[in-house]
């Protein structure tokens, strides 16, 4: 084809899409990038105007994700409102199994961090303003047609108009709910866990002490992650509470005080009394995977390619490693004079990322299944396993590497760096 309108179109300007755009701009600056986002951009939405909200939604960032953001020049700004996780406490409610991880035991500042989604989005936007990335917003990708050496993409704009753009490659980064993935002919596999995640911020009478708690109960796992000030251990935590449909409906009908009492019954008293719960959000829990997430000129990333159970907080960190793997293939293709939408290029990305997502899916899915069993022999075996993790240095290092997101890519953007050294040190 003649010279396309742009080299890369990214459908979706959320955390995954914006991170991909920044990574390409930083690491493959010769590529022209256009981000298509359904929501209008606010010109004054910059980090300097950010005011943390009690009800802010947040994401768990593994240590490996911090290293990637450092490579992208974003971490110093992100760290201003990223709460560190110094300790992780994993327990089986009503049983003896416990495992504890401490950052100091692994020579790290933290095992991970908790950052507000809006804060991360603002930081990404500020960095992107300093690049040549172009935006189409509000607009949506509604269709795509393969053409020689690329794709023709149809956009619906905010005024209900339509336009077309050509590019070498389209990356779908708008999550798993937009319908674009299915419209383009990708076939996802879904496995429902028959559970829902209730998300809210909570306050407790005792300080979290920068500790994260993963608590497995007979009704499903629940997690409390330290939230708030990055410098002072406060009393606010981010809650992920797994509930059946019936239990979710019951909890949503309760007053805030009764929600706290119900949560107290399920979690216990390790953080003292639950004194406040914020706005509750919820969504059904489904394991979604796409076996073939690439086609000539098209690649799926993030939740469009795989959506996991939130146990162990692996989802966004897996997506981030996949984005960096894709950018590395774009860089190599550009150096070799190949189109970034060439099927061999995209299949190489798929092959490299597949092992990581398969291992991560197995890790999170096996935790859900193992701790969902109520047979006494299985309970005894899993609790012995938790104790073993706590006592055996080799097993503990393996578990810590999973928690810190160091079990995937060995290097960032094709050259030895911090992530490479950290993975090697923790193997």
UniProtKB/TrEMBL annotation:
- Hey, which family's this protein in? Belongs to the UbiH/COQ6 family.
Q: Does the keyword DNA-binding apply?
A: no
Protein's organism:
Marinobacter guineae
Per the UniProt entry, what are the Gene Ontology biological process annotations, in alphabetical order? Answer: ubiquinone biosynthetic process
> Which keywords, in A-to-Z order, does the entry hold?
FAD, Flavoprotein, Monooxygenase, Oxidoreductase
Per the entry, which co-factors are needed?
FAD
The keyword Oxidoreductase is annotated on this UniProt entry: yes
Looking up PANTHER family in the UniProt record yields:
2-OCTAPRENYL-6-METHOXYPHENOL HYDROXYLASE, UBIQUINONE BIOSYNTHESIS MONOOXYGENASE COQ6, MITOCHONDRIAL
Q: Which pathway does this chain act in?
A: Cofactor biosynthesis; ubiquinone biosynthesis
Q: Where is the FAD-binding domain?
A: 5-360
GO-annotated molecular function = 2-octaprenyl-6-methoxyphenol hydroxylase activity; FAD binding
Name listed for the protein in its UniProt record: 2-octaprenyl-6-methoxyphenyl hydroxylase
What SUPFAM superfamilies is this protein classified in? FAD/NAD(P)-binding domain
